[in-house]
Amino acid sequence: MSKVIVSGIQPTGGLNIGTYIGAMKNWKQLQDEYDCMYMVVDMHSITVRPDPAELRERCLSFVAQYIACGIDPKKNTLFIQSHVREHAELAWILNCYTGMGELNRMTQFKEKSQKNQSNINSALFTYPVLMAADILLYQTDLVPVGQDQKQHLEITRDIAHRFNNHHNGEYFKIPEPFIPKIGAKIMSLQEPCSKMSKSDTTSKATVYLLDEAKTVTKKFKSAVTDSGDEITFDEINKPGVSNLITIYGAITNQSQEDVVKHFEGKRYGHLKVETAERMNEFLDPIRSQYNELMDDKTFLLQTLKDGAERASEKAEKTLKAVKEVIGFLPA
Ligand code: ATP
Ligand code: LTN
Question: Model-level pTM?
Answer without folding.
Answer: 0.97
